[in-house]
Amino acid sequence: MYTVITENNESAWADETGILYHFPKRYLKYLEPGTNIIYYKGVLKNKSFSKNRLSDAPHYFAFAKIGKTYPDKESIKNDFFATITEFIPFEEAVLAKDNSNYLETIPESRKSNYWRDGVRAIDADTYHLIISKVSPNKVSEQKKTYILDKIIENYQDSLESLSEGKKSKRYITTYERNPKYRKQAIAIHGNSCSACGFNFGDFYGEYAEGFIHIHHIVPVSEFEAPKTIDPETDLIPLCANCHSVVHRERDKTLSITELKYLIASRSKP
Ligand SMILES: [Zn+2]
Ligand SMILES: [Zn+2]
C-alpha cells in the first residue's frame, strides 16, 4: 500500500515530522501499519516558512512507513495518529509538478478538488515514479546514516550514569532518552505514571505539564541482537520516583506488575 501524506508548516494537526502523524478517521484506511508513505508539502502560504522547506512550490520531501495507528484519546472528533518508522528525508525537493505534469495521477472526476485531501492513496507506479526522482546517491548516503543511527540506538551506547553512593548505576537507556520514542510513547500511553498514576502537570501545575520519564520495559542486559522498539509494548511512562524504584538494583529491573504490587501492599485499606 502506498500513500501520500501532507504536512504543512501551519496546520491544526499535531504532527511531528518523522515521528507522529495526526489525521481524521476517514483516512485510516489509507494508513494501515506498514504502508509506504511519501511526505508532501503543499503551496507555501506564509513566506516566513520558506526557510523550513526544501522548495516554495508543492513538493515531496521524505519517505517512511506507517508503524501503527491509534485513536487520539484527547480528540473529541475521533481523530487518529500514526507512529512513523524508517523516516528518510530527501536532500532536495521532488516537485509535485514535473514540467507541466503532476507526478500523481488525478482522476478526471477529482480535477477540481484532488489536492484538498491531505492523505492520498497512490498506486505502486506513482510511488516508484516519485522515488525515481530522488537522487540515488543522496538517498543511499541518508540510508547509511539512518542505519548507523539504528546501530547506535540498538547497542545502547550512551547510557546515562546515575551515581548512588559509591556505585555508579546504569539507569536510563537510549530508548528512554530518544526524543522520537518518547513522543510516540507519550502519544500512545499518555503522560501519567503507569504504576502510581502521578501526573506532573496536575501536581505541580503548568510548569511541569507533560514532564514524565519513559521506561523501557525490556532490561538492557536481556538484549541479544539489535531489535526495533515498539513504543506501545516496550515503553511505558513512569514518574521519577517509580522509575528510580524499578531501577534500584543493578541486576534486576522490577516489572510494572511488581512495582504496582509494592505500591498496593503499602497503601492503607
Ligand atoms: Zn509513579
Ligand atoms: Zn527505565
Describe this structure in words.
It is a single chain. This protein is an alpha+beta fold. It folds into 2 domains: 2-148, ph1033 like fold (Roll); 155-266, no CATH class. Helix content is 25%, strand content 26%. It contains 7 helices and 12 strands. It has helices at residues 124-132, 136-154, 174-177, 179-189, 200-204, 240-246, 256-266; strands at residues 2-6, 20-23, 36-41, 59-71, 80-95, 97-98, 101-102, 119-122, 160-164, 167-172, 213-216, 235-238. A 6-stranded mixed beta sheet has the order 2-5-4-3-1-8. The chain has a two-stranded antiparallel sheet with strand order 6-7. Strand 6 and strand 7 form a beta hairpin. The longest helix is centred in the middle third of the chain and has 19 residues, at 136-154. Mean pLDDT is 82; it is low at 154-170. The structure holds zinc ion (2 copies). One zinc ion (ZN) is lined by residues 193, 195-196, 198, 238-239, 241-242. This is HNH domain-containing protein. InterPro entries: HNH, HNH_nuc. It comes from Psychrobacter aquaticus CMS 56.
Helix-strand layout with pairing:
Blueprint: E1 2-6, E2 20-23, E3 36-41, E4 59-71, E5 80-95, E6 97-98, E7 101-102, E8 119-122, H1 124-132, H2 136-154, E9 160-164, E10 167-172, H3 174-177, H4 179-189, H5 200-204, E11 213-216, E12 235-238, H6 240-246, H7 256-266
Bound molecules: zinc ion (ZN) (2 copies).
Residues 193, 195-196, 198, 238-239, 241-242 line the site of one zinc ion.
